[in-house]
Design a protein that fits this description.
homodimer, 434 Repressor (Amino-terminal Domain), six-stranded parallel β-sheet, six-stranded mixed β-sheet, 16% strand, DNA-binding
Chain lengths: 362, 362
Amino acid sequence: MEDETGQRIVPEAIRRTSRPAEHHAGNRYGNRPTMKDVAARAGVGLKTVSRVVNGEPGVTPDTERRVQEAIDALGFRRNDSARVLRKGRTASIGLVLEDLSDPFYGPLSRAVEEVARAHGTLLFNGSSAEDPEREQELALALCARRVDGLVVIPAGDDHRYLEPEIKAGVATVFVDRPAGRIDADVVLSDNYGGARDGVAHLIAHGHRRIGFIGDMPGIHTAEERLRGYRAAMEDAGIPVEDAWMSLGVTDPERVRRAAEEMLRGPAPVTAIFAGNNRVTVTVIRVLAGQTRQVALVGFDDIELADLLQPGVTVVAQDAAALGRTAAERLFRQLDGSLVTPERVELPTRLITRGSGELPPAD
Amino acid sequence: MEDETGQRIVPEAIRRTSRPAEHHAGNRYGNRPTMKDVAARAGVGLKTVSRVVNGEPGVTPDTERRVQEAIDALGFRRNDSARVLRKGRTASIGLVLEDLSDPFYGPLSRAVEEVARAHGTLLFNGSSAEDPEREQELALALCARRVDGLVVIPAGDDHRYLEPEIKAGVATVFVDRPAGRIDADVVLSDNYGGARDGVAHLIAHGHRRIGFIGDMPGIHTAEERLRGYRAAMEDAGIPVEDAWMSLGVTDPERVRRAAEEMLRGPAPVTAIFAGNNRVTVTVIRVLAGQTRQVALVGFDDIELADLLQPGVTVVAQDAAALGRTAAERLFRQLDGSLVTPERVELPTRLITRGSGELPPAD
DNA sequence: CTGAAAGCGCTTACAG
DNA sequence: CTGAAAGCGCTTACAG
């Protein structure tokens, strides 16, 4: 059978009785056995069960066996939520990023996860969708769960709402962009230097009329990259014309228009510096439709960039290193070895593949 | 200053006193205020604080104001971990996938997150790294935290370890591949039909010697796709030769050798069906180095596939739909409206972009 | 070696 | 409208 969305639904053979309704409807975690139940069944005290479950010494082999049998018979699994309530640390951290589905955040998340795992810590993950309110809502919900720490890729520019949490001991590290209006650890790429190097690379290949398409000013990374662009131009003694710059929302339609604009007229740009991966992709599409060859350097690496014709030259960030560094700092805050908020800048890497080495068309 | 890894570390101005050591070292969540503290300060009972915090009726405006003031003064935030212990449901679910950094799982994770969010539920995320032991370790750690449910992309093929948890009421949905040796909900793509359609597409464009490079048999998706390949060939009355098939580990080196092998000899394949996105990418690289034109259809879409020359024809899965469907089923299990384990198959989509429409070279 | 009591920070059920 | 008592499932501190 097939429903209206094209799904095909096949009932599986039912090899066991279907789950009783009370397991769903009831609370108490479906009436799971507790240490008390195990203790009763094994005929021992609660603390003895706790000792066995946690591998603490001081239990005779015979007692241990009896307890273990009760555990197995009942299918007991320790409730770590209760444990954590008593112990203080929840052994969980939260990662608030912009969009889980953005490929840039995959390696970053994975790196955070690996560090967390090495510390016996679980990871909550959530997207702010670039909405400051949603970021706050998510971050505070995680704090209410008493995560030990928070790695935040900020959407908003005012993080004072986190001040009480940080004071209360929630370790906090910002990534990619600094925190707004509070003093906090931040790990980010050298956006200024990376953009400057990328633009200088174009200049070194003979370009003077170089376009810049970037995100809205107000976004820290966008500002830094624009600053890098201006610095490279100034270093080369090239006065920047307004017509060469497009700053704003980076939806494909807008980027397309901006690129086409720059490529029109009597003195069009001969090269474009794209401010982030989404812009780069759109610009590639625009350039594919041009007869004239236009050089391109993009900020952020993109997959398969080397397979395109020409290969796409980029200023690459190391997303995994951002995540790893941030998570390591988080745990250093937690163990008390890091107290002063710092700003850590990771270097970017210029990867030349062809598009950035094209000479000016005129 | 710059350290050995090239990191630049800049101490931030310290606008507030650095966090006292006891906030890090101590447990008790850094001595955070509790409802009891709020009650004492406001001069009311515990339950009254609870009422205000939870917006329950039956508190005079005056009392409410006093409580609210105490909350603000103390920086109180309800401990949802404690709340959850008492209430039974943790309002959290876990997502165990193969690799957070794999772009295929980005949209899937995001879709699960959105459904969870709509249900006021937080999401734990973790990677199995294709290691069945790590999958089990992670899934059981999440169960110990008493997540309400689990979405699992299985790495292993024996999930009996989850049986006690499922019986105890942990909602469980498998995605991408079915559970092993237990009867459980599963949401996956129509791997068989997708592969069959893709191969039939190549046949329709005149190919007869068609190579198949896929993952190890034993992996469910790999087997289904191979079955689809065989079915399409059989439908066309083409006997498959062993030399046209490569099944096994899909690391780039091995895939490269396999592809080159197929393209050698007196009767080389004129088209290749690639069993997954990683294989496709490697095959593209191999084909780029060939003088002869070889047709290609890949399972799974890849980014920028349309910008390559020729564009890459693929059988696309809808990763977001997989995640969304799985999460929705999870919550339907939780609310009791879904009791019988089912297998839901989502259709795939053939996207023609050029590489699959090339005629045979001979 | 073993266990009863108190407590983690909340909510539930009940009584005033 | 308000609150004291009991309890969620564990661990801690202590006593036998």
